[in-house]
Amino acid sequence: MKHLMSGNEAIARGAYEAGVTVGAGYPGTPSTEILERLAKYGPEVYCEWSPNEKVAFEVAAGASLAGARSIVTMKHVGLNVAADPLMTLSYITVEGGFVACVADDPGMHSSQNEQDTRNYARFAKVPLFEPSDSQEASDFLKLAMEISEKYRTPAILRSTTRVSHSRSLVGWGERAVPPKVGLVKNPSRFVPIPVWGRPMRQRLEERLALLKKEAEASPANRLEWGDRKLGIITASIAYQYVREVWPEASILKLGFSYPFPDGLIREFASGVERILVVEELDSILEEHVRSLGIPVAGREFVPGIGELSTDRLQASRARFEGREPVMDEPMPYARDLPPRPPVLCPGCPHRGVFYALGKHDVVVTGDIGCYSLGAFKPLDRMDSILCMGAGVSMAHGLEKAGEPRRVVGVVGDSTFFHSGITGLVDIAYNRGQSTIIVLDNRTTAMTGHQDHPGTGKTLSGEKTRALSIEEIGRACGIERVLTVDPYDIEETSLAIAGEIEARAPSLIVSRAPCPLRERRRVGGLRQINQEECKGCKLCLKLACPAIELQDDFPEINPLFCAGCGVCQQVCPAGAISEEARK
Amino acid sequence: MSESIRSVVLVGVGGQGILLASEVLARAAMISGYEVKTNEVHGMAQRGGSVVAQVRYGPRVYSPLVARKTAQVLGALEQIEALRFADYLAPDGLAVVNAQAIVPVTVSMGAARYPQDVESRLKAAFPRMAYLRAAEVARSLGSIQAANIVLLGAVSRGLDLPSDAWQEAIRASVKEKFRDLNLKAFETGRCLV
């Protein structure tokens, strides 16, 4: 019996079957469900949300040094945070199998960039596995674990949005017996001070040569002979599209794709007349095949920006064959449809903070999370986003550069624990004066409500100490720390006014739980008295999905209203009130 | 592309239950002995934005994505989302559209207009269309939350999966206390086409 599983669930299944006993990670779309699923396998597998990807990576690395099989999970940009331990774990080597499961997001469905994790495999000189469906996600995790342990190297399993979030059938196997745990002391192996590090550097190259041989013979790399006129080299989800767009072609499908299996590539090249490389994002395979002296077509026909699809590859095929791609006529019935961008939910506590910030002439450096949506009109109250934690540190940089306006940094609660704290330390240490607002909605909301160090619960649901953002702020040396209720716009705005006036750094914690997670209304339903409404549309500036414009006058849709009452405070005519309870 | 592959696209707005509907459909296809692939989008797009789920089944399925103009059925829980994703549907495909308008924030802000001629656009866009009031039907059965399964019942008429596979899939996908409601919602939807 097979099971319908997403790629992420299948990676977790593979980890369970491989005898993994430790999993760590930080939530990030499209990777989040891997660890959530692994945690459900119960006490046999210890799983944790770590504060950030670097910590998670090191937790899993520590487990591996003790001999346990471990995985670490993250999205592509998370590997930037964890790049430091990755680059040297490949030197000090692992004991128990270690696989970093990293999910890329071609097309930027839910990410700030489109970087290609395959570069990291080459950069860190570690083996790379690329599943193209859920069965392979499970199989390749197990294979990666086996190779990792055999060669004592960390391995990377690279998924993409369409692999992670597509479901397909997976056969289940038995769980392997986990290895015995106990660190065997060996400093010349685990301590890369220069005298021991230099030989490690040598061994790294020797290991890479052995891994290349392993990739050549791996069942994860396979030749599918068809018509010999065209051979396509492909990997990951692109393979599935290629099978539909070029059903007749010969295919070299790579699953264990780094180190490159050169012998296999040469064998394939000598068996076909022309070669086309079809890969998403960077031209890594294409450039390598060309470096072997093999003429190859690729990026001139296959887009390297955005994700691929059967539709896009149909156009690639047309261009490759010298035909004009068939351009779809835009549907006349779909003309001028109003866009439906993501918005802050009804009752979202962030809305009040952004509205209050709108009353002040300040620069706002933002961060990554649901509150990124505060950058959109009409709230329009975020001036920059760079990466996790930058909302705090960039505020300090703007201020030190002499930005004439006051600077406010905005960061979420989970993001604060991820990498906001060090920025706060910097502000206190280097005599900054920025105002930092932590939007504390008591959860990691954007990725689907994961717990974090401030929530008092672990990934496995155990109660734990809830770390206080206010106490951390004070411990970091911030003397002005206050807490506000974001549903009270006046209180929030006054707090902001007071702190941007003060010539000292400050931390404002805006605290209200995410109503989407709580699954209940904040307060009673609000309604607009149409006789008192002047039609000024100020309430529409809140971008609340519950407030709809009907014939030039706003109305509140009772199906969506979460009863937060922010609109009531904004209405200058006093036309909005709480509905009498029925 | 193989003629024997069935492709379905389900669209709506975040929170309407598109993902559960696609899960039930995928299960029903799996129970019927087909290979199944589905795709859905998570993360930022779910915050009140357009949501698309795709399901493909057949003896052998490669891509989880539906190519344009190849879906046998397009199911929409919101009417302008049906128009937005209309070009997934094959020229002879069946469109099942819930007659419900959910106003996007771009409209309530006054930056865009909700089209006034939705029904005539739908009729022109979809020669084979079932236009139904899934939300009202679901409410009359006990909960507006079951509108997605009412819609799925109507969608099932455009597919060739046996009735007991659907029922088994619903039982496996929803919590026990909602089982009867959803089975009823499905049967009611199935009778609307």
Question: Descriptors for this entry?
Answer:
heterodimer; A: 582 residues; alpha/beta; Rossmann fold; 4 domains; seven-stranded mixed sheet; five-stranded parallel sheet; 21 helices; 22 strands; globular; B: 193 residues; Pyruvate-ferredoxin Oxidoreductase, domain 3; 8 helices; 6 strands; 38% helix; 22% strand
- CATH level 4 superfamily of chain B: Pyruvate-ferredoxin oxidoreductase, PFOR, domain III
Q: Considering DSSP H and I runs of 4 or more, what fraction of the residues of chain B is helical?
A: 25-40%
CATH top level of the largest domain in chain A is: Alpha Beta
The CATH superfamily title of the largest domain in chain A: Thiamin diphosphate (ThDP)-binding fold, Pyr/PP domains
| Tally of individual domains of chain B | 1
Largest interface, Cβ cutoff 8 Å: A-B, 58 and 54 residues
List segments of chain B where confidence is low: pLDDT < 50 over at least 5 consecutive residues.
none
The main β sheet of chain B shows up as: 6 strands, mixed
Compute the average pLDDT of chain B: 93
What general outline of chain A do the C-alpha atoms trace? globular
Quick one: how many beta strands of chain B?
6
| Strands of chain A, count | 22
Tell me the major beta sheet of chain A. Answer: 7 strands, mixed
Largest beta sheet: strand ordering of chain B: 2-3-1-4-5-6
The ordered H/E elements of chain B are: EHEEEHEHHEHHHH
> pLDDT below 50 for ≥5 consecutive residues: which ranges of chain A?
none
